[in-house]
Structure formats: C-alpha cells, structure tokens
Design a protein that fits this description.
heterodimer; A: mainly alpha; Cytochrome Bc1 Complex, Chain D, domain 2; 2 domains; globular; B: mainly alpha; three-stranded mixed sheet; two-stranded antiparallel sheet; 10 helices; about 10% strand
C-alpha cells in the first residue's frame, strides 16, 4: 500500500516536471514577454527612438490577427473623430500639382532622416494607392483612388453639395482611424506627419476636377 | 560617323522602350530577373563564404570547420532550412547569423558584441554576409523544416507572432501592414504574405539575396533591419531576440517551401 502511494506520488511528480518543460506560458504572460523582448531588442537611432514602441489605445488594440471588440472599435473611432483638427477658415483645397509631388514622395520619419518635421516628409500615397492614370507604379495595399472625386460626384468642391465628402476626405487624411479603427493608413494630421497646407494639396489631388486623379 | 552610330543607338533604344511599354511593368520585371538569373552574382559571395569557413582567422587563428549549426560540428548541408532552432550549449534559440557569431566567438576568439555593433557591409559583417550566402546555398532546393519540438522554439514562435502584429511608430505600421494579406504590393514591388506559407522560394525561403539595385548581398538580418527602417521603427539590434523570434515565426509558417537562397532581387 505504502509502496503504491510512493509510486503514485513519483508518477505525479514526473507529470509535473514533463509539463513544466513542454508547456508554454499563458497568452497574457507571452504578451508581457513580447513587450519586454521588443524593448530590449530595439535601440534609439537618430529621430527613431524607442519611444516609438509606446502604443496608444488604437495601436495596442490593432496589434493582433483578431479585430478588437466592437466597443473598443467605437471608442477608437469616436476619439479619433473628435480630435480631428479642421482646416483654418474652412479652406480645404490647395494645389493638386503640389499634391501630386507629395503623393509621389515616400520619404520621411526613418532613422536615416535628419528631421521629423512635416516639411521633410512625403505623403507616400502611391506606395499603396492608384491615383492618376499616368503613374503605373502604384501599390495595392489601399483601394484605388483613381477618379476619387468624380465617382463621388464632386464637380465643384466648394459647392455645399460636396461638403460632406470634402469633410470626410479631410478627416480621413487627418486621422484614418476615425472611420476605420485598424486602418493600415497612417494618421497624417494627427501624428504630425504632414501640416495643414500639405494636407490641402492632397485634398486638391483627390477632389479638384482638374487633378490627374479625376481625368 | 560616330555621330550616326550614336543616333542609331538612341533610335534603337527608343524603339525598344516603346515595345517595352506595351508589356505590363510586372512582365518587364520578370523578364529582367530571368536575364539576370543566368549569372547570379550571389555565386561570388558563396565562393567567398566557403573560403572564409575554412580559413584560419581571428585571435585564435582557427577555422569554423568545427562550428555546430544544428546538425553537428562541421555539418553545413541542410542546416539552413532548419534554422532558427534551439541550441543546448548557448541555451538559446538562434538563427544562422546569431549562431555564426557564437562560433566566431568560441572558435576564433572574435568579440561577438563588436561584430553585432558593426554596420552592414563593413568589417566582419562582410564575413558574415558571405558565410550566410554560402551556408544558405548549401541547402538550395531543400524544403523549410524548422524544428518546433523544444518549448523554447514554441515560445519564440509565439513571441515572433506578437512582434509581427505589433503596431507602433509614427505611421502605426506592423509587419502585418504589408505582409498580412495575399497579393499586395508597394509601388511595383510584390509583397510576400508572411503570416502563412507564401510558397516556394518566396519570403523567408528567399533570403539571403543579392540585390541588383545596390550590388550588395543582404542577409535575413539586413532584410529585417531595412524592413524596420521603412516601418519607421527604432533600430533592431543585430541578432537581437526580436529578429530571431520573427525568423522562427516566418520560417515555421513557411514549412515545406523550397529554399532558393541566396536569391536574386531587383
């Protein structure tokens, strides 16, 4: 009897040891370990410091293959929309030619860039979107923006009938997460990547009937 | 006469350019790659790597011929498609390059920290890129088959997965922003999906690679480093845990894919 108890105890101990060797930490512990790993693996280089690893609500919620819960999605989107800064004097459009230059320019914000100021940054639109037909080297991560204004019936951007789409477009450029919590698109205004005047030029590229986007 | 010839040449180039424009840009790029593949300059790096493996080097004046890359001391064939993996002597999961650092330190007496801190394309980093080219080439045509039996290998897969989806930086990018969906591209550059198996000779099964645009041999470490630069992240340490964990994640996902490394890239 005593012998069998000892055997049983030994067997139980063996199970514990084996389990201890082969089992993984739980999901929450792995999350914590992953964060610690990132912090210790990266270092500051030029303008790209380890501060860039500190996530806000949206970045954290959109950091897995699972979409966040519905209430979190709503919170991200409503906070983003509430913080959109609308253009001074209600002037939404600039020069589409400048917008095209910005759309072509994919530079800025890397550790090899000297400054993080908007003046040195491109809008990198063509990396992910088709825009004007004449540019065949465009990416496909985002939807095609060819005929963006035309398709939405914008024949005169300053016409009150166009106001809703004009405002939506500004909001999307300022903070894409206002309309889609886990959008792949950077938050150009919110994150200080582009300034108001650069954003106006992009607005013109998308909405001006004379822009190559709407030909 | 010479003038005429120049004009003729210019005319021919224009005609060729016009014909080229008829084809899609992707066709053109594929054709360009096929032309170049006839003489992949990676071969030069492979030859150099084999030489460096056998040469007596470093403070201890020793070769790397007793280096254990996972299949026993000195075995090179077939090791690449099973890395990163667990190593009992270092008590760590290591990728090809972090393992080479271990061997260069223990066998040859090099300072691994100093090499890890050296810029790509300089000093002993040049040795590493040649070694990685040769060693990967010795598994050319084999299928990716990373071990996942050890708990640490499984843990590193889980950490790699979390790193892959981690959004941060001024542009909110993660690895998944570009490599989480099938059939996407940036400009004309096709992007491999890396959250699952991208297929033979794509993604993890295609690096190291010779880059025609820069004339350089890029290891997986260098590939990851430039990804993070474009992701607008801070600087990943050479052979740091995040790079190894991502290697485990991509390598395990690519199980069964044929390795073409060292490949040829635009």
């Amino acid at each position: 009897m005593k012998k069998s108890i000892i055997l049983l105890a030994a067997a139980a101990a063996a199970v514990v040891i084996v389990a201890g060797c082969t089992s993984l930490p739980g999901p929450a512990e792995l999350d914590a370990q992953a964060l610690a790993m990132l912090k210790s693996s990266f270092r500051d280089e030029g303008i790209a410091t380890n501060k860039r690893l500190e996530q806000d609500l949206g970045q954290r919620a959109c950091s897995s293959e699972q979409a966040p819960a519905e209430n979190v999605v709503k919170q991200i989107e409503s906070e983003a929309l509430a913080a959109v800064k609308w253009p001074a004097n209600g002037q939404y459009l600039g020069d589409w030619r400048e917008g095209e230059k910005l759309a072509q320019n994919g530079r800025g914000m890397t550790w090899t860039d000297k400054s993080a100021a908007p003046a040195g940054n491109g809008a990198m639109c063509y990396n992910c979107h088709q825009i004007g037909k004449q540019e065949v080297s465009f990416g496909t991560i985002g939807p095609s923006l060819y005929n963006y204004g035309k398709i939405r019936g914008v024949s005169n951007p300053s016409d009150p009938a166009s106001a809703a789409i004009v405002q939506y477009t500004w909001g999307k450029l300022w903070n894409s997460k206002a309309y889609s919590a886990c959008s792949n698109m950077p938050r150009f205004g919110h994150a200080g990547l582009l300034d108001e005047s650069q954003l106006r030029h992009l607005m013109a590229l998308l909405l001006d009937p004379k822009s190559p986007a709407n030909q | 006469m010479r003038h005429h010839r120049t004009l003729l040449l210019a005319g021919l180039l224009l005609a060729a350019g016009a014909a080229q424009a008829q084809k899609s840009a992707a066709d053109g790029i594929a054709e360009y790659r096929a032309l170049l593949a006839d003489g992949n300059p990676a071969e030069l790096f492979e030859a150099k790597g084999e030489d460096l493996w056998k040469q007596k080097r470093g403070p201890k004046s020793a070769s790397l011929e007793r280096c254990d890359l996972g299949k026993g001391p000195g075995v090179v064939k077939g090791v690449f498609v099973e890395l990163p993996r667990w190593f009992a002597d270092t008590q760590k999961v290591q990728d090809l390059e972090s393992r080479l650092l271990t061997c260069m330190s223990s066998l040859q007496g090099f300072d691994p920290k100093a090499i890890a801190d050296t810029a790509f394309g300089k000093g002993e980093q040049v040795t590493l890129e040649a070694l990685a080219a040769w060693i990967s080439g010795e598994s050319r045509g084999q299928r990716m088959n990373l071990p996942q039996a050890h708990a640490e290998e499984q843990r590193m897969y889980q950490l790699g997965k979390r790193a892959f989806y981690f959004r941060g930086g001024p542009m909110d990018f993660s690895c998944a922003s570009c490599h989480g969906e099938e059939g996407k591209r940036i400009r004309m550059q096709d992007l491999p999906i890396l959250s699952k198996n991208p297929g033979d000779g794509v993604g993890f099964a295609a690096w190291p690679a010779y880059r025609v645009s820069s004339g350089e041999m890029w290891s997986m470490q260098r590939r990851l480093n430039d990804c993070f630069r474009q992701q607008r992240f801070p600087f990943p340490g050479y052979a740091s845990d995040v790079t190894v964990a991502l290697g485990v994640y991509m390598g395990v996902n690519a199980k069964g894919a044929v390795s073409v490394a060292p490949a040829l890239k635009r």
